[in-house]
Amino acid sequence: MAMSWADGVTRVAILTGAGISTDSGIPDYRGPSGVWTRDPALVKAFTYDSFMAAPTVRARFWQTYLEHAAWRAEPNAAHYALADLERTGVAVRLLTQNVDGLHQKAGSSPRKVLELHGTMREVVCTGCRMRAPSEQTLARVAAGDGDPRCTDCGNILKLAVVLFGERLDPVTVSHAERIAANSQLMLAVGSSLQVEPVASLCSVAVNAGSRLIIVNRDPTPYDDLAVEVIRESIGTALPRICAALGSAAQGTSGTPVTQ
Questions:
Q1: Are 157 and 174 in a shared domain?
Q2: Does residue 229 share a domain with residue 142?
Q3: Same domain, 128 and 232
Q4: Beta strand spans in the chain (E)
Q5: Which of 68, 79, 103, 117 is an active site residue?
Q6: Residue 185 zone, left/alpha/beta (φ > 0; ψ -120 to 50; rest)
Q7: Is 255 inside a domain boundary?
Q8: Is 103 one of the catalytic residues?
Q9: Residue 50 sits in which domain range?
Q10: Does some domain include residue 209?
Q11: Residues whose CB falls within 8 Å of the CB of residue 188, separated by 6 or more in sequence, listed in order
């Protein structure tokens, strides 16, 4: 794998999708064994309007997350490689579509992880906007409460994840765009790059002069913008990429290259 694109790179933005967590036992969404592939009807439970409209849909949603593999999952080699890269002196920012919290669990600094689609580790009230750790609400679901309500105001609770049809936080999106535009290298890992506006961060980076590398099993709409597209397993490709970036950065004078 040629890695001349690593030369002089000291600022890296890494966009991660569901594919980076499949080695941890968390299924992706659109792959051959993906969540939507196996059960297309489940999309309704993850659509904001449907979720808000029907208690039966909310019950399906909560049951899906009650048994979610992410609660028991551990970080894999790819997560650890990104955490290690941060310690080499490379300025790393993680822009993740994932809600599983595995980047932080692997040792990436929480302040350097931007969770674009929210987190399953918290619940939020759709009325008063109260936020709390998920455990207590999930315990209520496990005890038989199919439609848990806010204990403060009585409104509908949802996990603090962005559902289909729900607008991403504009402040978070603007922050992500600034990170992408200021990177020297944008690394898109394990994402189908089909969900906007997050996927367009690749264009933001390239238009600002950043190099784009895509590591994904399947073709994406942004492959033609990349200086390299890698189809290799993420669990083997990413540790090697991160090692090359770390070595290249340690071999520079410490002055970032301006693209």
A1: no
A2: no
A3: no
A4: 11-16, 91-96, 113-115, 118-125, 131-133, 157-161, 185-189, 211-215, 228-230
A5: 117
A6: beta
A7: no
A8: no
A9: 42-67+121-161
A10: yes
A11: 14, 15, 17, 202, 212, 213, 214, 215, 216, 220, 222, 226
- Amino acid identity at 116: L
Angle at 52 between CA 130 and CA 157, to 5 degrees: 25
Q: Which two tokens stand for residue 54?
A: 């029907």
Amino acid at 119: T
Cα torsion 186, 234, 65, 50: sign: positive
Which residues touch 23 (CB under 8 Å, ≥6 apart)?
76, 77, 78, 234, 235
Residue 31 lies in a domain: no
Same domain, yes or no, for 105 and 179?
yes
d(CA 165, CA 123): 18
pLDDT digits (tens, 9 = 90+) for 218-239: 999 999 999 999 999 999 999 9
Task: Report the distance separating Cα 27 and Cα 13, nearest Å.
Answer: 24
**What is the rounded (10 degree) CA torsion for 242, 244, 246, 250?**
-170
173 and 234 share one domain: yes
Per-residue DSSP letters for 47-95?
A: BHHHHHH-HHHHHHHHHHHHT-GGGT----HHHHHHHHHHTTT-EEEEE
- The string of pLDDT tens digits covering residues 49-71 is 999 999 999 999 999 889 888 99
Instruction: Give this prediction's pTM.
Output: 0.88
CATH at residue 224 = 3.40.50.1220
81 and 177 belong to one structural domain: yes
